Amino acid sequence: MLAYEYRHPSATTAEPVLALVERPDPVADEGELLIDVAASGICGTDLKIARGQHRLYPPGTVRVPGHEAVGIVAQNRSGDARFDPGTRVAVAPNIACGQCRPCRRGLGNLCENYASVGLTFDGGFAEKVRIPAAGVAAGNVQVVPEHLDLRTAALAEPIAAVVRGLRPLQVTRDDSLLICGAGPIGLIALLVAKHRGVGRVLVSQTSAHRRRIAGQLGADVTLDPRDGDLADQVRAHTDGAGADAVVVATPIGEVFADALRCAAKGARINFFAGLPSGAGVVGLDANLVHYGELVVTGSTANTNADFAEALDLLAGAPELFAPLVTGAFPLARADEAFAAARAGEQLKVLLEP
Ligand SMILES: [Zn+2]
Ligand SMILES: [Zn+2]
Hints:
Blueprint: E1 2-7, E2 17-22, E3 33-42, H1 44-50, E4 62-63, E5 69-76, E6 88-91, E7 94-95, H2 101-104, E8 115-116, E9 128-131, H3 133-138, E10 141-143, H4 150-153, H5 156-166, E11 176-180, H6 184-195, E12 200-204, H7 208-216, E13 221-223, H8 230-236, E14 243-248, H9 253-262, E15 263-271, H10 286-292, E16 295-298, H11 304-316, H12 318-321, E17 325-330, H13 334-343, E18 348-352
Parallel strand pairs: 11-12, 11-14, 12-13, 14-15, 15-16, 17-18
Antiparallel strand pairs: 1-2, 1-4, 3-5, 3-9, 3-18, 5-6, 6-10, 7-8
Helix pairs in contact: 5-6, 5-11, 8-9
One zinc ion (ZN) binds at residues 96-97, 99-100, 102-103, 111-113.
């Protein structure tokens, strides 16, 4: 089969590369599934892998990335008839052990012994992907609802992450929501919030192109953080109150501090984005949290339950989310697809083996 493989030869000798290679077809073992990949989204994590900067891809790694895969079951050795060959499925990438402390508390996304499709073993940038028995048993393979096309279903993974990030914010129709950053994650948060009827969604973003897209996708207000103090701008659009909920979806330290200043009394804030390692110490005004009774939350990755919720959400409104897929390339043109994803004009780029 054709695969877009990552090779990191050694710490000193050669640059890491992603290249198309011929590999033997994988075969499903007892308990496993083999899936013919229909589409795999390229995400920021993959760009990080391609740069040789991902901690799960150290020197010496040879592996196929791709953790946003959907496809059709080719081989079912799970004994579960729901996955008979021909079934359309989406793969939730994070396989939790079910035994460790976070797992026992329902935090499978924080599993201490996790395995992850496309991160710790071969993923979806290939014609076929093999799902280990532990993943099949844990519910990582989920049937795609009938009227949801596979291309749109490929958005389930980032949507699952957003569903998780928004949950503790409990945004209602009466709330205003500020989203900092209009990358794919910020735009998904915008779509989910508008879909849930949130009255006023403000999006802050430096790129005019992305602000335009946010406007097209339903943002009530778009702001350029360079047009003056962001907190002043947010208050001007929220009757002086500030935002009832804030999502930080951009990896820039000062935005985390700004988020607190933009928040209304009693607001909820989600630190969705991660900062590069070593850059996580940022100056926050603790008094804003104290005197404003702010609730600051974080979220990372997603669980299989989040993923199922994302598939439901997609099935209920595929036309809402479909415009996020702005590029689809056959696997043979993977280099081009990565270049497009890197250029930043695209929203979600898919590889379609
Ligand atoms: Zn992703
Ligand atoms: Zn665990």
